[in-house]
Specification:
This protein has one domain (about 15-225). The protein has five helices and twelve strands. The protein has a seven-stranded mixed barrel with strand order 3-4-6-7-10-11-12. The protein has about 230 residues and is of the alpha+beta class.
């Protein structure tokens, strides 16, 4: 398993903390100004044979009368690590396009413009993704604890020895983004993509365990940078 500084359940929570801190600073006048700016956010995740997609406006985050806070594409930078959260909870929201409720987190170390960023993907527990794991013989805990190898099947002992468990390579970033000033909408979104096949271990293996269950994933995103 990759040595991480934060636990699987908490390492991405800072993105949501920044969101609610920012919400607390916004007043009604700021909402009007942001509504006039209409900055967009989006993600598209191809997973499980379906396309899960939202497209919405930055100003929606500041309108408590709407349910779009249930769906988000957020970015937060902390100690040189870029945390991205892609959540689809509400299929009745105005920003919903297609797919099932899910919540993916992408963690990128030392983010740079280009195609060679290294990071980690966490698939949080939701009924849809849990059902997919079970139907494909994967332990559901392997999704949120990032127990996979990338793009090739291999034995656990080899993956552990070479420090390949839970790593993504070739993450593309075209914009590192910039957070908005309070009361304005002058920021830029973090934009990028990832495509690969992640291999998970099959439930029930006991000796010489193999990462041999393929899970194709493609993600494109434009995430609001919160700090």
């Amino acid at each position: 398993m990759v040595n991480l500084s934060l636990s699987p359940k908490s390492k991405y929570s800072f993105a949501l903390v920044f969101l609610f801190l920012f919400l607390g600073c916004a007043n009604d006048d700021n909402e009007v100004e942001l509504n006039n700016q209409r900055i967009q956010y989006s993600f598209e995740i191809k997973f499980g044979g379906e396309t899960h997609k939202i497209v919405g406006e930055f100003s929606d985050y500041f309108d408590f009368s709407q349910s779009t806070i249930q769906n988000h594409s957020l970015a937060s930078l902390s100690q040189g690590i870029l945390g991205l959260g892609f959540q689809l909870n509400d299929i009745s929201a105005t920003d919903y396009i297609s797919g099932q409720p899910l919540y993916f987190n992408l963690r990128i170390e030392n983010p740079q413009i280009g195609n060679n960023n290294i990071g980690e993907l966490q698939i949080n527990s939701r009924p849809y993704t849990d059902d997919y794991a079970t139907a494909n013989g994967i332990r559901t805990t392997a999704f949120w604890s990032s127990e996979y190898v990338e793009n090739t099947s291999m034995e656990y002992t080899d993956a552990y020895r070479d420090n390949l468990i839970g790593k993504l390579t070739k993450i593309s970033l075209s914009n590192l983004g910039k957070s908005s000033s309070i009361g304005t909408a002058d920021g830029d979104n973090v934009q990028g993509s990832y495509e690969g096949v992640l291999y998970y271990r099959q439930r029930g293996q006991t000796t010489e365990q193999l990462f041999n269950v393929p899970v194709p994933i493609k993600i494109t995103f434009s995430a609001v940078r919160m700090n």
